[in-house]
Amino acid sequence: MLIFQCLLLIITKTKGVINMNNLRKIGLSALAGSLATFSVNAADMSVSGAASITFDDTNRGKGDRGNGFYMGDSIKFNASGDTDGGLGIAVYYEIDDGALDDHNLKISGDFGTLTFDGHGGSSAMGAVDDKTPNAYEEAWDIIDTDGAATSGSPTVINGSGAGDDMFIYSSPSMGGATLTVAYRNGVSDAAESMTDFAIAVSPENIDGLTVGVAMSNNTVGTNIDSDESTMYATYATGGFTVGVQSSDLDHTTANSDQESIAYGITYAVNDDLSIGYSYHELEFEAGANLLDQESTGISASYTMGGMTLAGATNEVDNMQGQSAAANDVEGYEFTLSFAF
User: Fold this and answer.
1) 3-state secondary structure at position 147
2) Closest CA to 51 of 316, 308, 329, 325
3) Out of 3.30.9.10, 2.40.30.40, 2.40.160.10, 1.20.58.100, which CATH number does the structure's domain 45-338 have?
4) Given a cut of 80, is residue 227 above it in pLDDT?
5) Could you tell me where the beta strands, DSSP code E, fall in the chain?
């Protein structure tokens, strides 16, 4: 098109003199026309955040946050839309404490949802590691004696838990049943890969009942495998919700097997107030010479208008199977949040 316009200009000009201003205009017009045939699709991001104040001491008497008060500092960015082919696309980023934290990409359709979780997601089994009901957090949660996630917290059978760069597939409901599968490629030749799946069933003819199972296989080192499984059931009737869960860990390393049992009950006193009690016991293999770890928790949640006050006080004995007095730990956490 540009060549044709230039030739046309040369033919129509007298005395064979080309007007450079006209040529420049034609060239720019042709360039603009060609650029208009391309487009860059950029998603419109929505921004959200929470207004909250938390007070905690996750190792009672040894709080490491100064006065124990802090506010939420997370900003969340979301964008979603549909492709011409009908696929739903959603992307999520979280900036937490000034740094990029959780982020994922989701592709959805009639087939279900496929998520690529860059950071912060739970594996299929990790998402159901404790489905017993509570009004705030699980009995084993909150406790943290050194601020280092696992080393200062109770032991839990939770599959791979969380991991970076993980694929997660969630099926649509099929007669009340859903399937979730997670896969993460190996980070080294020794730790080859992680695969787990979970199935949850809410029978359409039994209101309030949900049962589920999950299994995980994780290659954690050369010729070292960790196989985990769990099964649970919860039932809601009236203002009560009760649940029980049993989990098992089989590890290639000698004396590394574990078993756990958990119970929980919550009661909705009214539309605004809920209270709960939960219990979790983990047993180590006999040859490990470790004691049973026992965790108990009392939790509550109260909502009034756009304000919610929720919290829990938890206690763990023989944390990680150790008998020293320092491993009998109590902690609490309370959060005041606002929706507006």
Assistant:
1) coil
2) 308
3) 2.40.160.10
4) yes
5) 46-49, 51-57, 69-71, 74-82, 88-96, 99-109, 112-119, 166-170, 177-185, 193-201, 209-221, 224-237, 240-251, 258-268, 273-284, 293-304, 307-317, 329-338
What are 75's strand-pairing partners?
A: 49, 95
Q: Return the H-helix or E-strand segment holding 26.
A: helix 20-35
Q: Around Cβ 78, how many Cβ atoms within 10 Å? A: 15
| Residues, the chain | 340
d(CA 62, CA 332): 12
Sketch the domain layout of the chain as residue ranges: 1-38, 45-338
- At 254-272, the pLDDT tens digits run 889 999 999 999 999 999 9
Residue 82's alpha-carbon distances to 3, 40, 169, 275, 297, in angstroms, are 39, 15, 19, 41, 43
Mean pLDDT of 194-207: 93
- What residue type is assigned to position 17 of the chain? V
pTM: 0.81
Residue 189: which region, alpha, beta or left (left: phi > 0; alpha: psi -120 to 50)? alpha
